[in-house]
Amino acid sequence: MADKRRFELFADLVTRHFPGCRHAFDIAGGQGKLNAALTSRGLDVLTFDKRWKHDDVNYAQRLFTLDEPCGCDLLVGMHPDGATRVIVEYAAKHRRPFAIVPCCSDNGMSYKPWMRHLAELGQQLGLDVAEEALPMQGRARVLVGKPRD
Ligand SMILES: C[S@@+](CC[C@H](N)C(=O)[O-])C[C@H]1O[C@@H](n2cnc3c(N)ncnc32)[C@H](O)[C@@H]1O
Questions:
Q1: What pairing do the DSSP bridges indicate for beta strands 23-27 and 44-49?
Q2: What domains does the chain contain, in order, with CATH numbers?
Q3: How many CA atoms lie within 13 A of 96 on its CB side?
Q4: Confidence band (pLDDT; 50, 70, 90) for 149?
Q5: Measured in angstroms, how far is the CA atom of residue 42 from the centroid of ligand 1?
Q6: Counting CB atoms within 10 angstroms of each CB, which of 27, 113, 114, 145 has the fewest?
Q7: How far apart (Å, rounded) are the C-alpha atoms in residues 11 and 14?
Q8: Sign for the pseudo-dihedral over CA of 2, 7, 12, 17
Q9: CB atoms closer than 10 angstroms to residue 117
């Protein structure tokens, strides 16, 4: 069972790392709880996911792909499952920063190799990627990527 505080904890981390960002894409945002937590901290957020039932937040009811036009200055993803890789690739393509809390891999890798793989992917694509952790149980490690100068 994922920690219910994860959205508030992650929103705090995001605003600490990216105080200048105003427009976030929240990828694989489920019901929109992270969107609400970031919106309450002053960001303009659009959530991408395919759920019919979701909270009253800005919501694009579709899967996020590399073809999505770029209307953000930051990408975030909490436990984004199959969308994790595309967040890193999209951030590199548009030279935007990202913060993600990965969980399941899209290729059968277990957690630690998957985290390493994502960090290496970001580095190969021209991003500096650092890792930290949210103070919670479960999948709590965060990858923070920033376009290299
Ligand atoms: C484990 S749930 C996490 C939901 C939410 N972020 C949370 O922490 O409760 C993973 C979500 O990823 C969504 N998802 C997977 N691939 C996606 C994609 N390409 N674009 C948007 N959402 C995607 C699924 O629909 C699902 O809601």
A1: parallel
A2: 6-136 (3.40.50.150)
A3: 24
A4: confident
A5: 23
A6: 113
A7: 5
A8: positive
A9: 17
